[in-house]
Design goal:
The chain has eleven helices and ten strands. By secondary structure, the chain is of the alpha/beta class. It has two domains: 195 residues, 2-enoyl-CoA Hydratase, Chain A, domain 1; 48 residues, Lyase 2-enoyl-coa Hydratase, Chain  A, domain 2, CATH 1.10.12.10. The strands form two sheets. The protein has a six-stranded mixed sheet, with helices on both faces. It has a four-stranded mixed sheet with strand order 4-6-8-9. Helix 1 links the parallel strand 2 and strand 3. Helix 5 crosses helix 6 and helix 9 packs antiparallel against helix 10. It starts with a strand and ends in a 10-residue tail after the last helix. Bound molecules: 4-(N,N-dimethylamino)cinnamoyl-COA (DAK).
Length: 257
């Protein structure tokens, strides 16, 4: 298997495991990731998903350039669709997804990190969209998601120049949420994930879906949807538990119902 899955309580960790190719995605690896994500999206036991790379050099150095160099137009479109499906799963599955960026996150690697809800990076991480240097462009959502995360001006600069940035710059421009020493990256990411896994899953799913709407569609419609989600959550046992626990001055015990 080219993507490893481990679980700890409600936290699923997916590790792209092709360190000899700096975890670049070939068809087998990307298909494997897609299959795991489809499964985890459906599983109530998996409350949070972390995506990371094997070894200490790379999250993922992009799509596999050796594989891509042989593609024709139809093949490239199918390859793009597979990457889009993976990005869509990370972005829309009804639970938080976190990229733990432990080194290079380039091209498709950066794009899949951008599809996650949070990004944490090690201090040795390098991020960028260098596709233009290969005569192509980001094809797994990078042109859209990078602009949404860092703004249009910076996204254009990074995509058109292919400039690779370090972790400190990524933090400064909001491309990552936090930077940790390499040995601290997974412990800190797991700490956040465990905290999320203890929260009410229906509230997290509604919150993610509502925030995902923020930069798309009609603002008034999105506010209406937020109001709908807010109201609907009052039929959940977890909302009753959360508010009852607050009033009783005790910790809530959420069940996902
Ligand atoms: N693909 C395949 N192999 C890769 C790779 C990649 N992206 N990146 C690294 N490797 C392999 C290297 O070939 C080398 O393998 P061997 O030669 O030892 O067999 C091994 O990993 C170690 O890499 P290096 O020897 O190069 O290591 P260095 O420390 O010297 O350099 C580096 C590290 C990350 C700076 C360098 O490897 C590099 O520049 N890698 C390429 C980074 C890159 O350009 N990434 C973007 C890839 S393009 C689309 C769909 C998808 C996409 C676009 C369009 N459509 C269908 C529309 C996405 C495109 C991309 O992601």
């Amino acid at each position: 298997m080219s993507v490893d899955l481990s679980r700890e309580d409600g936290v699923a960790v997916l590790t792209v495991n092709r360190p000899d190719a700096l975890n670049a995605f070939d068809v087998a690896t990307l298909s494997d990731l897609r299959d795991h994500l489809r499964q985890l999206a459906e599983e109530s036991e998996a409350r949070v998903v972390i995506l990371t790379g094997a070894g200490d050099r790379a999250f993922a150095a992009g799509a596999d350039i050796k594989y891509m160099s042989g593609l024709d137009v139809d093949g490239a479109k199918k390859w793009g669709e597979l990457g889009h499906e993976v990005g869509h799963l990370l972005e829309t599955m009804p639970k938080p997804t976190i990229a733990a960026i432990n080194g290079f996150a380039l091209g498709g690697g950066c794009e899949l990190a951008l599809a996650c809800d949070f990004r944490y990076a090690s201090s040795n991480a390098k991020l960028g969209q260098p596709e233009v240097n290969l005569g192509i462009i980001p094809g797994w959502g990078g042109t859209q998601r990078l602009a949404r995360v860092v703004g249009l001006g910076l996204a254009k600069e990074l995509v058109l120049t292919g400039r690779v940035i370090d972790a400190d710059e990524a933090l400064r421009i909001g491309l990552v949420n936090a930077v940790y020493e390499p040995g601290e990256l997974m412990p800190k990411t797991l700490e956040v994930a465990r905290g999320l896994a203890a929260k009410a899953p229906l509230a997290l799913a509604a919150a993610k879906e509502a925030v995902n709407r923020a930069l798309a569609g009609d603002h008034g419609d999105n506010l209406d949807r937020e109001a709908d989600y807010f109201g609907e959550l009052f039929s959940s046992e977890d909302a009753t538990e959360g508010m009852t626990a607050f009033v009783a001055k005790r910790e809530p015990r959420f069940t996902g119902r």
